[in-house]
Amino acid sequence: MNLIFLGPPGAGKGTIAAIVKDAYKIPHISTGDLFRANIKNETELGKQVKEILASGNLVPDEITIKMVENRLSESDANDGYILDGFPRTIAQADALASMSDVDYVVNFVIERETILKRLSGRRVCKSTGRTYHILYNPPKVEGIDDETGEPLIQRDDDKEEAILNRLDVYEKSTAPLIDYYKKKGLLIDLDASKSPEEIFEAFKKVIR
Ligand code: AP5
What we know:
Elements: E1 2-6, H1 13-24, E2 28-30, H2 31-40, H3 44-55, H4 61-72, E3 81-84, H5 90-99, E4 104-109, H6 112-120, E5 122-124, E6 131-133, H7 160-174, H8 176-183, E7 187-191, H9 196-207
Parallel strand pairs: 1-3, 1-4, 2-3, 4-7
Antiparallel strand pairs: 5-6
This protein binds BIS(adenosine)-5'-pentaphosphate.
BIS(adenosine)-5'-pentaphosphate is lined by residues 7, 9-15, 30-32, 35, 52-53, 56-59, 64, 85-86, 88, 92, 118, 121-122, 131-133, 136-137, 157, 166, 195-196, 199.
């Protein structure tokens, strides 16, 4: 099953993708995670995109499309995948159409106020990417990753100025994909304001 998770920043795409990945045994391919891994490992790509991610702007299509093309050519994506955060522009969607068929585009529907609460309280483990929320999904010990014991951090782009920019960028560049995929008959809306368990139950019903 080839899935796209579409939705604004902080809608919970990564949280639900982690559940779907385990349940359906398909890889979770997050372009944000791929960029952050490159930044952490100080690769050429990482150096190129570091400032762009911190500001909340989009990495140029050419770079992003090439990275996804490489990732989808790996053998674990042969029998399905969850693309989380890609495509984010019409040009990326057109490029994906020439690389792979898509079965469903899951559109995470959520209000701005909830997004702001989710993003401002998000904390992550830098080495594993594991995600927490100070109120909704706190770690066992405050500020510490449950498994590695490392200190949790706040993403650079979860600071207020970058969050507001990311929401603007989403409206301008990514929201038009809702109509794009609706016209192709692939779009499924999910109410992303519920708990992760409820969202996953709704997901299973709609893709059945
Ligand atoms: P990316 O990492 O993709 O960021 P994003 O789309 O902004 O998505 P987020 O990771 O912020 O949110 P999410 O929806 O996954 O929410 P999460 O599950 O973490 O991209 C980062 C940057 O990389 C971009 O700004 C851009 O620069 C670049 N980039 C990436 N892809 C690109 C592309 N295709 N083209 C160009 N540039 C690209 O949840 C958020 C919080 O809420 C967490 O704390 C979580 O615990 C909590 N939470 C989640 N679900 C629930 C729930 N149901 N109830 C209560 N709390 C919840």
